[in-house]
Amino acid sequence: MVEPQQKRVKLPPSGDDSGGQLLPRRDLEIIHAQLIRKCLCSLQLPDILHTLSVCNDCFSVHPVAHMLRLRDETLLYISMLTLFFEVSLRQQSRGVLCSRISEVVAAGADNEGAVLDILFGFVASEDKYVSYSASRALSSLLLMLRGRASELVLEKLVENLAVSVNLIEVGHSIEVVRRVIEWKDLDEHPLEGTESDSGQPLECAKITLTPADTQGANEVKYVATKKLDCKWFLLVARLTQLVNEFTMEREHVIVSFLTLWESLISVKANLSVTDTKEFYSGLERLMTPLTRHTHTVVWRKVLDLYNEVLCYGSTLALQDVLAEEPCNLAHLLIRAVKDRRFLECVPCGGSAGNRSQSNQSPTLDSSAGPSSGTASGMDQGDRTILHKVVLVVLKAIAVTVKETRCDSSSENSSRSGGSGSEDVDMAIIERSLREVVRKVDDFVKSKLPYHPEAPMAEWMVRLFADQDDWLVESMVCGLDIFTGLGIRIRQQPELHACVNPHTTFLEFLETIYLEHDVLLDLLVSNETSFLLYLLRYLKFIRRSWREFASHCGRRLEEVMTVLIRLRFAIDRLVSKNLFPYNINPVLKLLQKCEELYEVGEH
Q1: Residue among 554, 540, 533 nearest 596 (CA)
Q2: Where are the alpha helices (DSSP H) in 414-515?
């Protein structure tokens, strides 16, 4: 191979290391510094391999406990390995690799077993910093392995999860698997510039990889799901036991496992439905340990998991037929709220307190803004749990209504006749949901100083006002619940008022101070499901214009002014070809609502 024309950095002999230490610290520092530049071309291949060989021999011959006397050198070695694997992995995913790094990878392939043994030994170390650092290195190395080697590593990791008594080892083994599951081919660091910018120095000798050489990490993700699948029942059983016997020493294991579980079922992991189906089993086993005595950390992570399963705004709301697993969880939550006093067990302190003050306002007491928790004796952690539990119950209601409508429609479409079956189903659902909505309403008003007569459609905007994605998702849920219940909801004035989407929209506009620019920002952003909400709500306005106009009353002019200004702002962006997607369906609906307003149909 033709070497690049440049002055090479010569590694000093390892025997010159001061203090007679076993590890060549200065050599490691030089390699580390070059890896930060994402290129090793300035170093001689034999020198790099010699340094790595000396380190590997030291850690293979001497017990880990003995080597931890050289803790700084050990951490430097692990850090160098982590950086090497991460730089190599990122360059492989882009298809352009430093030639010297490629040579080191090829030369070290025969010795990867020894490196893996060393890293597994460090993961089991009682030193938390060494164990954590080794887990980072191991996850990056694992993503580079292929075939049987990756299978063996994942089998050992999953075995650690199932049977190891070393909680540090268990927790960090979980983190290794989670990083593999969450890894993305083009996951950019904000300081690395654009995707096309590799960040390598100009003098770096690069080689171009074939497309087949850049896809290996996805294979490892697939193998990881299969290995977890095989032992999933045992893993959930162990997690349940740890939760039931919670101690602070076990907290990091519980949190890590629940985070892994959330990643496995998240759409962001880019795993197929078939690959993740098994991981929906066991969700019900986490409900039993949730009592008023359960630690708040467990509550938060379980609620995160349940909210991910019931990912309504970006997933379930868009599906014509819902899968069985999220529906089962929704039913479980509704039964827990309705019959098991689930909300009474939620560990969020505080109470509504001074009702006489809150009675002066139809919404939130003026001293408590959207993100204030101290006004009711509730800290930010308690308020977060309150947000999560209210949101997951709203999602459960929306999923149940949508499932019932889908099932009834399927039955009626397969036979002639009326919608009697649907009426019976919806009557049963409506009675249960009315009770659940009442309990959620009472629960929130017992914690925060909302006016006793404020409907849920109003206070949920105030509740989620400081979290855009939760706010929009709750609004989608409320709209779908109202439209899903159909004509039946109009026969129940109390339930009608609780989830009336017109009340929600007016309160939302009040919260954003009638600024159409905020609506535009939400439409352009990909962080919420506001496009879905606005599209469905505008269709709802078009179908029930008179009801909308009547509900707005004297505020109709200012509401329509916001919508008309929004249409103008969208038109300007579209005319300059600056809107990031096809917004025409929303534009047409805005124009239709404007026409209804101008002809005076109100």
Answers
A1: 540
A2: 420-447, 456-463, 468-485, 487-490, 493-498, 501-511
Selection from 2-16, 218-232, 496-510 with the highest mean pLDDT:
496-510
User: Which helix (H) or strand (E) covers residue 96, if one does?
Assistant: strand 96-98
8 A C-beta contact, residue 404 and residue 334? no
Instruction: For residue range 243-284, list pLDDT tens digits in order.
Output: 999 999 999 999 999 999 999 998 777 777 788 889 999 999
Q: Specify the amino acid at residue 374.
A: T
What is d(CA 523, CA 532) in angstroms, rounded to the nearest whole number? 9
Between CA 222 and CA 226 the distance in angstroms is 7
Nearest alpha carbon to residue 144 among 175, 101, 174: 101
Residue 569, Cβ neighbours under 10 Å: how many? Answer: 15
Q: Name the one residue in this structure whose structure tokens are 């989670």.
A: 178
pTM of the model: 0.88
Q: What is the SS3 assignment for 452? A: coil
Dihedral over Cα of 499, 501, 507, 508: its sign: positive
φ, ψ at 206 (rounded to 5°): -105, 150
Residues 128, 115: Cα–Cα separation, whole Å: 19
Q: Is the pLDDT of residue 363 over 80?
A: no
* 43/8 Cα distance (integer angstroms): 6
Q: How far apart are CA 426 and CA 405, in angstroms?
A: 8
The dihedrals phi and psi of 364, each to the nearest 5 degrees, come to -90, 145
pLDDT per position as a tens digit, 518-556: 999 999 999 999 999 999 999 999 999 999 999 999 999
User: Contact at 8 Å (CB) between 110 and 148?
Assistant: no
H-only helix segments in 95-231: 99-108, 112-123, 128-144, 148-163, 167-182, 216-230
